[in-house]
From TrEMBL:
Name of the protein described by the UniProt record: NodB homology domain-containing protein
Entry keyword Lyase: yes
Keyword set includes Transmembrane: no
Reactions catalysed, as given in the entry: (S)-ureidoglycolate = urea + glyoxylate
Entry keyword set: Lyase, Purine metabolism
Residue stretches making up the NodB homology domain: 269-378
Length: 510
């Protein structure tokens, strides 16, 4: 992933000549200019006496891969950002005159010296000869640029029916996939330009669509009465996770970061070796349903897969592992990510999940749409309400959103607020009891992790709390797939009998 930086005179010195509202080369000295500081010509700027001056408007693209880089050794090229919007420029330092490189290496960019520069509106860069560059990229809103290069380059590009490598005259263009076995990518620039105040206000391309639920997604309320007389539907969600070896993750003692780091990693691994079984037994003892959201790589462990198959839980998907998410993926990569996760879980566990929680909430603006197209019926990626609602897309259809409660999540309570086992369990009980006193129908997704909620002290406290909530009037327990589309028994609990899923009582139907 390329670094994303704001272009300045200092950090672009090896790439070109920075253009802003400051005259840094005064000296032309036209005698009769009394109120003008006239700059001299840029000594090394050279357009081979055939400059081509044009403007270009560049629109947003979903693909953040850098597929091409080119350079010119006989002339310079200039990009001036006009209008109100910044632009992203992928630039690499010249290599043709590097004495530390072999001859073949001088014909390639140095990936260690390539960065993604954000050039603010009203500024620009005159590239030095040999600077590697891609065409400018929109940072969200349309980018308008004033471009100076040569007729030779423009004609060469205009005569090509499709993009292809070039070595014609002063046009030297490489397809990077033919040179390297890795892909250069730049981060989504929109959060960066918002953070640094470089975007016009209001931001013309919302990161998560007009309503905040993803591009093209529209919220639709679930009709009243979905809970069939219940006040609160509790959905226990158990996260079954694995982390890529060597990568960091949640820590019970964050100061332990030596290499290799065995304490916090071992604590996380404990969840799948012991905590998972403990939580399964707890829910069986209480006769309560649960939804497991599972990293597909977790069930490569035969013991984990065996415990899950015997749990009676609903199986939901939680990406491949918890060290990677979708936030830096292209649309194609994210679609493939969904498919691989769902395919792998179906192959291992025997059923295709219809519930989805993105690891680390690392969503993109496309995640809800892709989830709906992938057949996800219950999406847990949003946390902004106490009621379920539908997210509808014109092409993808709709999916049910069950808000994933952050206030009752074990990470929030234990790792962030450092509540002890009893305080954690009491927080859950207080949360549900208060909702049961309020008007309307509510849903609570209780997020639990096998290595946090699955420890002995917390399971003991949770058992007592959930037992009390099970008996609380107006409270029902359900899996994500059961709420709010299915039916609750008179006691508000789903139970699994020997011959399959059988409700403890006949009763309410949606």
């Amino acid at each position: 992933m390329l670094d994303l930086v704001i272009a300045t005179r200092e950090n672009t010195e090896k790439l070109g000549y920075f253009v802003d509202d400051t005259v840094v080369n005064p000296g032309l000295g036209i005698p009769y200019y009394k109120t003008v500081i006239e700059g001299a010509n840029y000594e090394h700027a050279d357009w081979k006496d055939q400059a081509c001056v044009r403007t270009s408007q560049i629109h947003w693209r979903d693909d953040h891969n850098v597929s091409w880089l080119e350079r010119h050794l006989e002339m310079t090229q200039a990009f001036i950002v006009i209008g109100k919007n910044p632009g992203l420029f992928v630039l690499g330092e010249p290599t043709h005159d590097r004495e530390d490189l072999e001859e073949k290496q001088r014909a390639l960019p140095d990936p260690n010296r390539v960065k993604a520069y954000i050039i603010p509106a009203g500024m620009g860069l005159i590239l030095k000869k040999g600077t590697w560059h891609d065409f400018p990229v929109s940072c969200g809103p349309p980018l308008s640029a004033f471009i100076i290069n040569t007729e030779e380059v423009v004609e060469a590009l205009a005569t090509m029916p499709q993009a292809a490598p070039m070595n014609h005259g002063d046009c030297y263009k490489l397809r990077l996939s033919e040179q390297w076995d890795f892909t250069l990518r730049f981060p989504d620039p929109r959060p960066f330009i918002q953070k640094h105040g470089l975007a016009p206000q209001p931001f013309p391309v919302p990161l998560m669509g007009q309503e905040g639920y993803g591009a093209g997604m529209h919220r639709e309320e679930v009709a009243a009465g979905w809970a069939k007389g219940k006040k609160v539907v509790v959905v226990p969600v158990v996260n079954v996770e694995v982390f890529v070896p060597g990568s960091r993750g949640p820590a019970i003692q964050p100061h332990l970061q030596s290499t290799p780091e065995v304490a916090n990693r071992g604590w996380r691994d404990y969840g799948n070796t012991r905590g998972l079984k403990r939580l399964v037994e707890m829910f069986k003892e209480l006769g309560l349903p649960a939804t497991a959201v599972i990293n597909s790589e977790a069930v490569k462990d035969e013991d984990v897969a065996k415990v899950l198959k015997g749990s009676g839980w609903e199986f939901g998907a939680h990406g491949l592992n918890n060290s990677s998410g979708a936030s830096h993926m292209s649309r194609q990569e994210e679609e493939a990510y969904f498919k691989q996760t769902l395919d792998d879980l179906q192959e291992t566990l025997g059923s295709r999940p219809q519930t989805w929680l993105t690891p680390g909430f690392s969503v993109t603006e496309r995640t809800p749409e892709i989830a709906a197209k992938a057949g996800i019926q219950a999406l847990l990626d949003f946390v902004d309400d106490d009621v379920p609602f539908y997210l509808k897309h014109e092409e993808a259809g709709r999916t049910l959103c069950l808000p994933y409660c952050m206030e009752t999540n074990d990470f929030s309570c234990v790792l962030a607020k450092q509540l002890d086992a009893r305080q954690y369990a009491q927080t859950i009980e207080d949360h549900v009891r208060q909702l049961a006193k309020e008007e309307g129908e509510k849903v609570v997704c209780l997020g639990m992790h096998t290595f946090v909620a699955g420890t002995p002290a917390r399971v003991l406290a949770l058992t007592e709390t959930l037992q009390r909530l099970r008996e609380l009037p107006g409270v029902a327990f359900a899996t994500a797939a059961q709420a709010p589309r299915r039916r609750f028994g008179a006691c508000g609990v789903f139970q699994r009998a020997r011959r399959g899923a059988r409700k403890c009582c006949e009763g309410l139907r949606t």
